[in-house]
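Below is how a single chain appears once it has passed through the pipeline. First comes the sequence as given, then the structure the pipeline wrote out for it. We keep one example in the README because the format questions we get most often are answered faster by looking than by reading.
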Amino acid sequence: MRLYYLPLFLLTLLPAAFAQNTSSPYYHKFYDLESKSGWGSGYALLSPSWSICTSCSSTSSTVNWSRTTGHSSPAVDGNSTKHHLGGTRAYSDVLWNNHLVGSFSSVGLPDYSNTLTKGARNFIYDVYFYSSTLSYSQALEFDINQFTGGRGYIWGHECRIAGGHKWDIYSNVYKKWVSTGVPCWPKNNAWNHLVIRVQRTSGGNLLYKSITLNGVTHTLNITKAPGSTSWSGITINYQQDGNSGMYDYNVYLDKLNFTMW
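Resulting structure:
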């Protein structure tokens, strides 16, 4: 997903208070998800519509991609996962998705009664990423998704690189990207540590709480309305976007942990 940019939102540089409640009945923490099953083969999103391409092949010339686990270098803990994107169609992307709670759960939480899906309100996406060719990326995207009660909560976070080195967040209602004004300058040829914190409010809205990149926290506290859905569950995404030249590039993920309560 990508698209439009709107005016800046108010932000501070103070870290958000976001203590984890490990005694919550909805508390779960999943470790090293990048190396686990459940990510599938990936979905191509072709410009200019960026809808999922059902006829695309991961080995085609238009857009091609791969995901391979078990890399000892570069790695933080000796076991990273490599994500490759390439092709000839400018600005095309590839999305990887993992169902954690609900139908098709990759971690053994089918949640038949929807107890976890309905009850969880706080989420943390914590990951390390590395690339030696970050300038070839239009953007990198990290999403937390919750679908419950007919409402879809997509906390989309996009680090625009060739697109201007800013963090965008996703508007579920208008299906557009909104600029936060927060800078996003990940280090090339080095490991970057990203922590994203979000919340579903008691009023049923999305709250984008904070983004921490390489130890610097930007507190957002931006509220957005949800979309609609007929599905129930909790998922996460990782996506790589191609730039105008659609140059081949790789990004390694490591220590991808996800916490909910």
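The longest helix spans residues 115-119.

See the next section for the split statistics.
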